[in-house]
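Worked Example 4.2. Read the sequence first, then its structure tokens.
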Amino acid sequence: MKYLIILLFIFTTIKGFSTNHLIIRPDYPLNDGDSLAIWEKLNIQCDSKINDLLKQQAEQGRRSSTINGFRLQLYFGSGADSHNQAVRMKTDFLSSYPDVKTYLLFKSPDFILRVGNFRTKSEALKMQKSLLYKFPNAFIVADEIALPDLLNITTNN
């Protein structure tokens, strides 16, 4: 009887692992950038205010040219000479890394120097490690970053 129960358990376990996964594909074409069309095609029972909020959020996302990301903060200071120190640090950074974007911000009464547009924290960490010798006080901050430039790749066929 024990062997029968064990065999039954093994067969049901194997049967559970061998089930096919169903992939659902839409039968209607979606336009590029029309992710809201998916919500309109689904039959979800909800308040109409939720659909209005989804449309507002999608529209706001289309208008915005920034996304959540990370930057490295190299300088933060206030005082009489803080602007000059921030500009010196910016030129020093740009002499070594001319392709990395720099942002000199003034949030009263502080001057802030941030560099880079990193989508992930790991990208920012790689840059931080490369800057460790020259800028030992650099640290990662969450910030609104510019959308990455799209590459136009053409092929000759």
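Now turn to a second chain, presented in exactly the same format:
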Amino acid sequence: MPYPPPHYTDDDTAFARRIMAEHGFALLVADGLAASHLPLLFRHEGPRGALYGHLTRANPICAADNGAGLDGRAALAVFSGPHAYVSATLHDDPARAVPTWNYASVQARGTLRALPDAAVRPHLDEMAQAYEGRDGWSVSDAPDYVAALTHGIIAFRLEIDRLTAFRKMSADKPLAMRKRIIDATRAQGEHAFANEMATTLTITDPE
């Protein structure tokens, strides 16, 4: 059997972009296995889109040669969407089943490009607005403090070369079982996951 199984992958670009937009705190891994958790912003640029973020100059991903080590490096950004534990008791025959973990995730591969120093402040403005909203905290609320920090920050762009989305939502199981999983996880307070899994019912079982 190929890995991951075909029923775990999803070639719906709109789904992948939604997961990246709604769950922007990602794991960025550069070649050489340097890794960092950080927020990333998706933009509709190029054939597959691009991701924007920033790192401190001391970060292993960009520390080499005072930041020159970031530019041109291959990288992988992993976005984790809603996920939940699925008990074997939810199967039709628990004696012939094992527990599993259902999840939605996206992997975006591409090349890192350092942005000019002048792009750091606009990038921070955009990042703050994305999470604070128009009426929340703004970079302009702490201009001197932010200006002092920008000297130690590198903003970057990751142009996406390959986008792989995973939607492991028991799609290979009977509809009644999938509905049980949704009800059980919702009862446990996993509402984001239950709502995400509910969207797959209309995808795999059209009216």
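Notes for the reader: The CA atoms of residues 98 and 166 lie 21 Å apart. The radius of gyration is 20 Å.
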